[in-house]
Structure to design on (177 residues):
């Protein structure tokens, strides 16, 4: 997947300025597809040059260069083309897993503090996901789109819960004498 497909999806959901898009991206798609604000702005320029989106000076721009972006029919066609293609297999690269293999091969390397730090990060993200779930998905009368968003969030919740459970078990192993 290219960043452009994530941005097209977000812009189809809601036309917005680059700044607002980057902020919304951080709070939604950014949980599973990371991009810096600079990358987002560069990609918006490429997408506009390709004719997938267009921008216009925002009504509230004043003296700024604020622009509003919206998806054009060729951008919708590109997103449809991409969405029906088979997905690539998930490529898991986790440097810490290699460190654990080194710990197994060399003997204790003192990795427990790093594992505890990582576990705390998973706990923070899990708390955030649960807050989002309570805030956005408490109603039993959700639209289809909202139910899909909720299921995506649930995958994140399950991932964090399993990561925490795994880290606790691994921590016990690392702390064995």
């Amino acid at each position: 997947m290219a960043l452009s497909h994530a941005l097209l999806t977000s812009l189809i959901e809601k036309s917005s300025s680059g700044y607002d898009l980057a902020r919304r991206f951080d709070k939604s798609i950014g949980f599973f597809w990371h991009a810096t604000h600079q990358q987002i702005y560069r990609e918006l320029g490429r997408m506009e040059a390709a004719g997938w989106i267009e921008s216009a000076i925002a009504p509230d721009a004043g003296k700024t260069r604020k622009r509003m972006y919206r998806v054009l029919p060729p951008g919708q066609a590109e997103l449809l083309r991409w969405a029906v293609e088979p997905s690539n297999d998930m490529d898991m690269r986790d440097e810490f897993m290699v460190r654990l293999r080194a710990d197994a091969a060399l003997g204790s390397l003192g990795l427990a503090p790093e594992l505890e730090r990582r576990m705390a990060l998973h706990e923070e993200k899990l708390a955030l996901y649960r807050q989002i779930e309570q805030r956005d998905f408490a109603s039993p009368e959700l639209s289809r789109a909202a139910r899909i968003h909720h299921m995506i969030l649930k995958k994140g919740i399950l991932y964090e819960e399993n990561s925490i459970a795994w880290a606790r078990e691994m921590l016990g192993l690392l702390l064995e004498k």
